[in-house]
Amino acid sequence: MARERRDRGETDSRDNALVDFVVKIRRSACVVKGGRRFSFNALVVVGDRRGKVSYGYGKANEVPPAVEKAIKEGEGNVGRSKKVSVRGSTIPHRVIGKYGASRVILVPAGPGTGVKAGPGVREVLQACGISNILTKVHGSTNPLNLVKATLNGLAQLRTKEDVARLRGVQL
Fold this sequence. Notes:
Layout: H1 2-8, E1 19-32, E2 35-47, E3 53-60, H2 63-80, E4 95-99, E5 102-108, E6 115-116, H3 121-128, E7 133-139, H4 143-155, H5 160-167
Parallel strand pairs: 6-7
Antiparallel strand pairs: 1-2, 2-3, 4-5, 5-7
Helix pairs in contact: 3-4
């Protein structure tokens, strides 16, 4: 029951209105004398749907502890993350997020468009609270790099007021 709610992005009241999305679960194998020993890695995106978003990466010998570790790390990182500049339900301007060999292009969209994005990018945007946006991925499609590139792009966003204040001009 709790896992189903978490996968849909719903939260309990005790979670302080944070939503989490499991982006990727990977299995890793270590060959030992008696055979293979498996461990699991979980990538989770955590956000408050009001502009604060982060990710967590957890590793454990079973899937549920790996997911719990990732959620705990992501919740800790959300408090330290900067709030994203959102204009209504979209972003204020076009931006390109880069991380490693991944490039994510984020383009504002009109009302009713929805989130046109692939896995990894979609979860970050939904956890951030953006509901109308167009995206395109170039280069590597590694989920961890896509999440980091999307967060990099969101960190570059500026509102008109921010730009006016930085330049020292009146609008």
